[in-house]
Amino acid sequence: xxxxxxxxxxxxxxxxxxxxxxxxxxxxxxxxxxxxxxxxxxxxxxxxxxxxxxxxxxxxxxxxxxxxxxxxxxxxxxxxxxxxxxxxxxxxxxxxxxxxxxxxxxxxxxxxxxxxxxxxxxxxxxxxxxxxxxxxxxxxxxxxxxxxxxxxxxxxxxxxxxxxxxxxxxxxxxxxxxxxxxxxxxxxxxxxxxxxxxxxxxxxxxxxxxxxxxx
Length: 215
Known about the structure:
Layout: H1 25-40, H2 45-52, H3 56-63, H4 71-81, E1 107-109, E2 118-126, E3 133-140, E4 155-169, E5 172-176, E6 181-185, E7 190-207
Antiparallel strand pairs: 1-2, 2-3, 3-7, 4-5, 4-6, 4-7
């Protein structure tokens, strides 16, 4: 259920129509980019119409892929939005990656902590030209005197599945139980501080944004 009262937020704001046929794919790519850039700039269709000299109904048709743009129209849109014309063609032909990992088929990752009952299973990673996202299922089965600390670029989301632990981030500590979630800046040192009730299982998802993966 989406309880976010702000317009344009939550799952409903991310819903799109089902993909159409290959026909009109370029128009859909252009329309999507025009709408995205216009909204990011805080412009309404009416304001955009004034700046471009293109009628509001025509702009609506462009954004909804109901018409094909001439190069002249694209140039006027680019000038009004202060972007290169090539921006409108971004991702027009790019394949969309998905990674499916069947139950029990994730790769076991050996890293600090693995030898003391800390098990990391890689559920999938979206990389492409940039290292974008990794998801791990973390299982902690033994208490230890020392816990590993982690530090990395990007943002991490922890979602507690089983057990109870105290998780640290910087100077702060959070008691996590099943259903609890913690989102944190990966640049701050973080890791388990106390394993209160074993076994412990939690999902760790790291989003790296535009940070390039190491060669």
